[in-house]
Each structure stands twice: as structure tokens, then as C-alpha cells.
Amino acid sequence: MNKETEHVKCLIIGSGPAGYTAAIYAARADLKPVLYTGIVPGGQLTQTTEVENFPGYPKGILGPEMMEEFRQQAERFGTDIRFGYATSVDFSESPHKVIIDENVTLTADAVIIATGASAKWLGLESEQKYNGFGVSACAVCDGFFFKGQEVAIVGAGDTAAEEATYLAKLCSMVHMLVRRDVFRASKAMEARVFNTANIEVHYNTETKEIVGDGQNVTGVKVINNRTQVESVINVTGFFVAIGHKPNTDIFKGWLDMDDTGYLITKPGSTHTNVDGVFVCGDAQDKVYRQAVTAAGTGCMAALDAERYLAEREYRV
Fold it and tell me: Catalytic annotation on 141?
């Protein structure tokens, strides 16, 4: 039974670069935004170490520290930031209804979705132990730290192939671990891998454990699933490229999404198929998935919401 009902002008679901940027713009436009952080306040960046590719931080910054600064900036302009996560929605009429933590009902004139996406992991204990200390799910974010070193990447799709070739420009050797005896990537991406001299493809290879010295990654223990022979590949970095899952399950049946769950926006905007509902960040971006692009779409969502509310007010 819902214990509380509240109406807000602009509700932002999720934090991270997209959610906090949307909050900054919405607050400055006097939309009086209420932001619910989600289970992981600050999103994926709070689970990374150094961020060196976000403009304005010439010396780099720790991911959690960066998100704390985003939060403070959003609060400075009046955003009401609350811990909690959306558990269900009802977009059948306006104002839109969102249930928080299964027991708080909010209605909102405009809803901005910034729920992000989560990297898929192999599920190894050692993978989480060394996450941020040699293990990464983003080659573009972290490849620079392994310049001139040997690394491994697991995956066989287009993303894995693209990230392997990206790493090959920085690293001395890239070991690509493919579970089957074929790629899942497109022929073009497969050809790009084969034409890169310092990528070595290991077929029929599964990761058993990430090896480390207690502080950093030193290798990866693999098994050939045909011969059952185990071996250790000496690497200092281990990249997981088996895909991302957008955190959009609660919007199924309400919002248009592709077959992998990424929300679909109208071209050149953050508008969804439901009036007054907008989406930004990795919940709708399966191509770039960078903090700076997420922040950019957060800005767009707030501007779209502001215009929508202004037009609605004018019509009334």
C-alpha cells in the first residue's frame, strides 16, 4: 500500500552525468526538479577510478569525486536530491505516475529518465576484486592507462572487436579471448581485427580467473574449452566487452525500446513516444556511452522538458 503521494513539476529518475546535468539545467529554469538517485548514486562513474577524458579536469579526477561535484552543483541551484529508485511507472495519462521504492507515489508533469546502463560482467569474484585496478569494462575510458603494455579483452561481437582495435593503438599486444571458434562481429569488424598485427585471437577460450598480486592485475587464467588445457596469459589489463544492459525494465510496455532495451527517442531530441517523458544518457545511447555525451543529452532533456512545460502552460 502506498504511504505517500506527492506532485512535482519535473521528476528526474537516476543520477550520473546525465541525471545531474539535467538537474542543473532544470533547476536553473525554475522547474523545481526532484531527482531520485537510483541504487548507485552517481551511476557507473562511481565504480571507476581516474577519469581523464572529461573536459575541464586537466589533471584528471576520481570518478566518485567527479560525481560528488556534479551533485553539489545540482543542489546549489535548488535540485531536491533524494536517495531511492523507481520501481514502477504508469504513463497512461498526465501527470505521469512513478512509484519510488514500491511505497511512495509521485505524479509529475515532466519525467526525465536517466537510469543509465550496466556493464555485463563474467561473474568472477576476482573480476570484481580487481575492478578499477586492471579490470575495466570500457577500453575508451581506461585504455590510456595501459599504454605500451599487454592486455586481454574478452568478447566476440562488434563492441569487442572495436575496443580491441582501439587498444591495439595504445598497447604492445592485445589478447582477444573468444569463447567459440567464430566471431559474432560483422565481417568488416572481423577483418579489422585480423588486419591488426598486435591483436592475437584466442578461440575456444574461456576466462577462469583474473590473476593479480593483491593490488593490480598480473595475468588471466584461461581454459581451452576443447582441449581443457589451462594456461595463464601475462597481462596488466583485462577488459570485458560482452555488452551492456540498459536499466529500463520498468518502462517496458510504456516506452518504445529496441530489442536490447535501449529507449528510442525522436530524432534530434530526447522525446520518447509519450508526451512529457524524456530520456538521456546511457539508457538511450548504445553507441558512445561516455560521460561527456551523457551529460550533453542530460542538458538536452532538461531543455526539451522546459519547452514542453512552457508550451503546455501556454495552452492551458
Answer: yes
8-state DSSP, 70: H
Distance CA 74, CA 87 (A): 24
Distance CA 210, CA 223 (A): 12
Find all residues with CB under 8 Å of 246, minimum gap 6, and list them: 115, 116, 117, 257, 260, 261, 262, 263, 282, 283, 284, 286
Strands 217-224 and 205-212 turn out to be antiparallel
What is the DSSP code (8-state) at residue 47? G
Percentage of residues in the chain having pLDDT higher than 90: 84
Least Cα distance to 38 among 96, 88, 82 occurs for: 82
Is there a contact between 186 and 158 (Cβ–Cβ < 8 Å)? yes
CB atoms inside a 10 Å sphere around CB 99: 16
Q: Which grid coordinates belong to 232?
A: 595463464
Question: Model-level pTM?
Answer: 0.81
User: How far is residue 62's CA from residue 211's CA, in Å, rounded to a whole number?
Assistant: 25
Diameter of the chain by CA atoms?
72
Flag whether pLDDT at 314 surpasses 70.
Answer: no
Task: Catalytic residue, from 10, 90, 109, 138: name it.
Answer: 138
C-alpha cell of residue 192: 579489422
Catalytic, out of 30, 90, 101, 141: 141
Catalytic residue, chosen from 10, 109, 142, 285, is 142
Name the least confident of 29-38, 92-101, 155-164. Answer: 155-164
Residue holding cell 560482452? 242
pLDDT at 1: 41
